[in-house]
Amino acid sequence: MMSLLLVLSLLWPLGVAMLVAWQVYRAPAGRHDYFSWWWLSAAWPALLLAYGGEVQWTIDVWMLGGEWELNTLTRPWLAFTALLWSLAAVHARGYFAAEQSQAQSGDQAVQRRLARLSLLWPLALLGNVMLIIAQDIASFYLGFALMTFAAYALVVHSGTDKARLGAKAYIILAIVGEGLILGGFLWSAGEADTLTLQGVRESILVAEHGAWMAALLCLGFGVKAGVIGLHVWLPLAHPVAPAPASAVLSGTMIKAGLLGWISVLPLGEAGMSAPLTQLGQVMLVAGLAAAFLAAFYGVFQHHPKAVLAYSSISQMGMLTALVAMGLVAPDAWSILWPGVVLFAAHHALAKGTLFMGTSISEHMPRWSLALIWPLLALPGISLAGAIGAGMVTKWAVKSPLYEMEHDTLIKLLSWAAVGTAALVSVALWRQWQQRQPGGSNGWQWGAWLVGISAALITPLWLPLPAESITMPPLKEWLGILWPLSVGIALVATGRLLLRFINTAAPPAGDLWWLYAGVIAAGLGPVKRINRGCSELKTACVVSCRQAERSLMDALTRMLEAENWMRHHVSGLMMALALLLAVLLIWEGQR
Amino acid sequence: MIWRFGLFDGTFEPLASTHWALVAALGLPLLLGMLAARLPPRQAWPVLLASVPVLASGLMLLSAYDQAGPLRWQWDIAGIQLSLRLNGLSVLMLLMTQVIGVAAALYTPGYLRLSEPGPLSRWLWPLMGVVLSTLSLIWLATDLLTLYAALELMGLAAVGMLMLSAKASALVAGMRYLLLALVGSLTYLLGVALILGHWGRLDLPGLAEVVEPGPVAWFAAALIGAGLALKAALFPLHAWLTPVHESAWTPVSALHAALVVKASLFILLQLWSILLPDAFYAPRVIAWLGMLAIVWGGLLAWRTDSLKTLVASSTVAQLGYLMVVFPLLLGPDVAPLSRALAWDGFWLQLIGHAFAKAAMFMAAGNLMLATGESTLKGVAGTSRRMPLSLLVLGVAAVTLMGLPPSAGFTAKWLLLDAMVRSQQWWAIAALLIGSLLTAAYVFRLFRYSFYESAPHHHYQPLAPGMDLIALTLALAAFALGLLAHFPLTLLHGGGA
Amino acid sequence: MIAFFEAIAAFDVIEVLLALGLTGSALVCLFDRHLVRACYFFVFFAAAMTLAWWLLGAPWLAAAELGLGLGLTGPCFFYALGHVLPSASSSLERDTFSEPGSRVAMRVLLALAWFGMVGAAIRTVIADMAYSPLEHPLLLAGVVIAASALGAFALHRHLLRRLLAFNLLGSGVFMLLAGVAGTSAAAQAFISVGLVVAWLGTMLGALLIRRLLHLEGVEALGRDGNPKESAI
């Protein structure tokens, strides 16, 4: 039964994609429903699978030998991933209702756009599911790559200039990341002669250059996870992507980078080498830096989705720091990891819901504002750790750190939470500024509402090991709650102070513009050389053609000697006879 | 060298059945040709029926040779010694002649029906018969008189055949060929006169015993060499060849390029091996000219615009390969192994080229017949409409280029081996350049055929089997490469 | 050479006269631009050849020459000229094709070289064979005729003149053959075959010439080696 479900969870999205393709080429475009029930159901088998229990599966015929497993780590991961994909799909049906009717009225550009999105959406989902359950390198990498490249369609969907820029940033960095991952995998797998992720972990632990392999993989997955420096695609891609696409991008796909780290790094293993610990420290610093800097940069953004994207970077920075603890302090990892998973799941749902919320605020349902705005704020407050699941999450992370006495880190994380609170409140404020009435679709707000409730009660439905998550004791509540109020207060005072200064928003994508400038400057000479080369090539071609023509002309003239020979055959025969006779006589006389 | 040609006494008396096979092999083509002149066959099947006894006679001679070894016939008519011999080489040549001759004859009815050639076509059959009969005689004859008579008859019949298309260009080219061939034979006759005057005998085995190097042998060799080189279209006396083929009928071209020019070469090599067993420079002159021939023929074929000129010029180049081998076959101080390899390679190349060239002429003829064009540009776009003809061209070209597994490859391999052993680097270079040039002109043809922009509306459908015959010949050239053991055994058994 | 002239002086006047007649008529036949006259001289040459064979004691050859050379080959030329069985196309009178001087010089040189070579070859053969000086004047005539006929063949452009040159070359070669090999059965066989072939070739050539005249006019007869030819 479980095996069937496993196979189904992979084949179902594939089947959906094929169905979409078949429909696009067969069905008349006018009546085509791009977001049918089949399409909505793509993630459901995977969701069922996550609640089915743990399972292990080995198939030798699959590529280099498939090793698929659903264990304590991947089960909750699959659960929140599949749930968010399902919700986002339902949301998408409402979100794209307008475009759908445009397509049905015969707009070919929209038809093409929707066909592309609805075809590649299930494929990205397939990749995401596969990379979660895969325990062998080939399947994992295949899933990762499939997800990465299929998601390009999600980002570029609207086809505007900004969308193209965002998609360009996304794909460039994705390719860089894929290259780094592939290099790391090949190196470590080749070193240990292994085909499984378990083997990679061991290889990194014992190999001489293990830290370098780990660094390669860290950077590669870091592109997806939005590590500082490689994060630039997030604030460029999120504002332009459709809300449901942003939700899965920010909710599940960047978590794939995190899962990649957890899968390949020997977290919590005994006998960690010094270079690996150093790597962990670097990651820790980078993560904290991301958490603070992103918050600082993000509050000045105008577009609510850009603000949310910076919030994602900030949150992922915190998660990076927590993962780094697995390298720096291996002993803590065994009690820390359920908190990390919960953090990831809660952030996924909360951030997904927040992104969906941006589409709600753009097309507000005809409800009372007093109802809508608290609902919009709820996931944000939870994310800041003040209520519901957020509070539990904070505690789940804090308590192991308390036990291992990492007080500084706890303080830093708390301050980072201030940043989160500030970002969330800025996002809400920007949404308020840019709100538009217009009535949203039932699918749209239905999925949103379910998302809010799911986010708030994350620990209740997430299949984590029993007893690994507890409610925080009352005396700790203050320590968990204060960042929210401080964050809101900071935003309010900052707003008051800056009221009279007309600040322009710093461009979203921060370092991207620096990179682009540097690379453009670096490409200048290359372009000149390139132009020189192409001129040289043209000149060569021209002269070669001339040479060829003159050679052929010379050859043709030379071949006219054939006529001469034809005319003089008998004379030549006489000469040949004489030549032979003279030669023979001369040779004979010697 | 002399024993390789089977020029010695003391062999078995042939059986009575062998006599009849000999008579059939020599006389039947002629008789059947006469018959066909009376009743021209409109279909291929009567030709097929008639060719059965011809081929049977060849096979009988083969089995006779297998059983009894080299055979010898001798007649004394009014004080003149006429003699024939049957050794491995001559059996091989005879079989090649019969197969290609039968293929050309089978091809003819369909060709004549489609090309509507006019009243002269009736003459094609007897002339073809004469050519085949005299060719068979040349492979067998071992006295100068028979060789002379057969050569002359074959030459006249070949000229007649080539001019049957009766276009003005064919007549000019044919007239030139006629005059040159006759003068070439007279030069040959002058050489023979010296031999006859000095040694007083005509039979080659006898001559082989009495000839000693001296001015008479040298003068005779020079005269005979020049005369036969003219008839064999050896460079630089080749220039009459291409225009002759330009407007000739396809089966005639196939026969002529494949067999007729080879006969003169055969006689030349045979006589020089008697007259010049140790000359150093004369075979080298031929070899140098051969290298030029390879390059020149290749260039001609490469730059030409006419399909038939391409195929005919390629003959010039391919004859060059044979000329290059002369020093290995005739020169002094050649190691026995090199000489044996060169001998095998020479004949394998000759036979492989005969099959491939006949196939190529037929395929080219098919293309020209179907499109009604005779230029390379005219056959543009035929790849889609006539894939089989192009396939034949390709298979034949593989042999000409000397790619494995064709007879051309085996032959060139043997020749290269012999040349490396005797360190004739120039010859090796010529061989390789020749292969490159062959590839160049073949692929030029193919490039044209794959143009899709051709404006042809009408393709004349071919008679059934016309492509098939050509394909069979081309595949035979292939098979000879794969089954080279059979011809090589016959060649080695030349005097055992 | 001196030995040759002494022999000529010493022996039969008829032979010498015959040799002179043969050589003279051959040269006229080869180098006269007036085609009809050249053909008449060819007939005269054939008659002289018949006489020569008779004198050499080869009556069969004389008969063959009479029949083939005089009786069949000669008329072939007149047919080619358009004098026998005249057809629609005009008859030939003169050869109007001219050759550049360098070519003429080259051919003369080649012919002289050939004369030397053939003469030397014959001498080497004669020196060894039984001495029979009777044939010497005719032998000399044969060498001269063969060399000049080959030179003329290589020189001329007009097809009829080339055909004539070929016939004379044939006769010269036969004469040499008879000269060095005597009139043995083998030599007679060779010469007979050669005569038949020469007749067949001439007949074919004459037919071709008529046909070409009919199709393309006189110009076609001198087209040999013209670059335009290959472009047809």
Automatic annotation (TrEMBL), chain A:
One Pfam family in the UniProt entry: Proton_antipo_M
Does the record's keyword annotation contain Repeat?
no
Sequence intervals crossing the membrane: 77-96, 117-134, 140-157, 169-190, 210-234, 246-267, 279-300, 307-329, 335-357, 369-392, 412-430, 442-462, 477-498, 510-526, 568-586
Q: Give one GO term, molecular function aspect.
A: oxidoreductase activity
Listed InterPro entries: ComplexI-like_HydComp, ND/Mrp_TM
Provide the protein name: Proton-conducting membrane transporter
Q: Where is the NADH:quinone oxidoreductase/Mrp antiporter transmembrane domain?
A: 134-362
GO CC term (a single one): plasma membrane
Q: Where in the cell is it found?
A: Cell membrane; Membrane
Its predominant location is: membrane
Q: Which UniProt keywords apply?
A: Cell membrane, Membrane, Oxidoreductase, Transmembrane, Transmembrane helix
Q: Which PANTHER family is this protein grouped with?
A: HYDROGENASE-4 COMPONENT F (PTHR42682), NADH-UBIQUINONE_PLASTOQUINONE (PTHR42682:SF4)
What is the membrane topology here?
A: Multi-pass membrane protein
Automatic annotation (TrEMBL), chain B:
Give the membrane topology.
Multi-pass membrane protein
- The protein in question is named NADH:ubiquinone oxidoreductase subunit 5 (Chain L)/Multisubunit Na+/H+ antiporter, MnhA subunit
Gene Ontology CC, one term: endomembrane system
PANTHER family reported for this sequence:
NA(+)/H(+) ANTIPORTER SUBUNIT, NA(+)_H(+) ANTIPORTER SUBUNIT A
Task: Name its species.
Answer: Vreelandella subterranea
Q: Which domain of life is it from?
A: Bacteria
Annotated ranges, domain NADH:quinone oxidoreductase/Mrp antiporter transmembrane: 141-438
The protein's location, in the record's own words, is:
Endomembrane system; Membrane
InterPro entries recorded: CPA3_Na-H_Antiporter_A (IPR050616), ND/Mrp_TM (IPR001750)
Question: What coarse category fits the chief subcellular location reported for this protein?
Answer: membrane
Residues crossing the lipid bilayer are: 20-37, 44-65, 91-111, 123-141, 147-165, 177-196, 216-241, 253-275, 281-302, 309-330, 350-369, 390-413, 425-446, 467-488
Q: Which UniProt keywords apply?
A: Membrane, Transmembrane, Transmembrane helix, Ubiquinone
TrEMBL record, chain C:
Q: Which UniProt keywords apply?
A: Membrane, Transmembrane, Transmembrane helix
Q: Where are the transmembrane segments?
A: 13-31, 38-56, 62-84, 104-126, 138-156, 163-183, 189-209
State the name under which the record lists this protein: Uncharacterized protein
The organism is Vreelandella subterranea
